[in-house]
């Protein structure tokens, strides 16, 4: 596992040691009740706000957005503060989806495994967000192709990828492979804050579907 500060959170430490989708669903079902206070208030988790701000700068209001790995709905809530978007969410954890439903930000919410093909047609969404999911022990770089698949040509995938794993774990290489295949174009991969109270940063990755 890459050296990533998890502070004193046993949930966060366990999240970087997941062994597959079932393990992920079990952990996040357990964590759902305290997730927002643990990660936002205690750890200074700003990833959702960073992505929502950039999406609002690049994607006009009224666009359809898939929030992939939506968790408790932090991204959806941030997006609704910035514009009138039509947002769908998917996540492995039913308990997290229940929390997301309480935000009122989503048109629909479904259980889905981001390590497999999504039950979504090609070219469905104007934009896709993926925050906190393309990370150690969660969803690997192969999922980027699936996120691009469900995005309309010219639409954007906007994601966070922890800085320590962007290169070593093959995420950058996966984006380059999509570009070489004519399926996507890397627009941005800027370093941004992620969990500010632990000084953990991420790459804010913006990929245009082709």
Automatic annotation (TrEMBL):
The keyword Zinc does not apply. This is SAM-dependent methyltransferase. CDD domains: AdoMet_MTases. The keyword Cell inner membrane does not apply. One of its GO terms (biological process) is methylation. Gene3D superfamilies: Vaccinia Virus protein VP39 (3.40.50.150). Signal peptide: none annotated. Residues 65-155 form the Methyltransferase domain. Keywords: Methyltransferase, Transferase. It comes from Pseudonocardia parietis. Pfam families: Methyltransf_25 (PF13649). GO terms for molecular function: methyltransferase activity.
């Amino acid at each position: 596992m890459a050296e990533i500060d998890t502070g004193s959170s046993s949930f966060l430490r366990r999240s970087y040691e997941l062994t597959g989708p079932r393990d992920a669903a079990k952990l996040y079902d357990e964590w759902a009740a305290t997730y927002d206070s643990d990660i936002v208030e205690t750890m200074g988790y700003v990833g959702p706000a960073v992505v929502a701000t950039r999406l609002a700068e690049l994607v006009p209001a009224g666009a359809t957005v898939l929030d992939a790995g939506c968790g408790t709905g932090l991204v959806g809530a941030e997006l609704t503060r910035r514009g009138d978007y039509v947002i769908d969410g998917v996540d492995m954890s039913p308990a997290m989806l229940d929390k997301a439903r309480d935000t009122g930000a989503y048109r629909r919410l479904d259980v889905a495994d981001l390590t497999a093909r999504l039950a979504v047609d090609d070219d469905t969404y104007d934009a896709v967000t993926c925050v906190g999911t393309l990370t150690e022990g969660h969803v690997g770089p192969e999922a980027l192709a699936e996120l691009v698949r469900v995005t309309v040509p010219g639409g954007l995938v906007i994601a966070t990828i922890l800085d320590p794993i962007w290169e070593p774990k093959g995420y950058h290489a996966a984006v380059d492979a999509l570009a070489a295949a004519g399926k996507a174009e890397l627009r941005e991969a800027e370093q941004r804050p992620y969990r500010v109270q632990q000084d953990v940063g991420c790459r804010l990755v913006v990929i245009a579907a082709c």
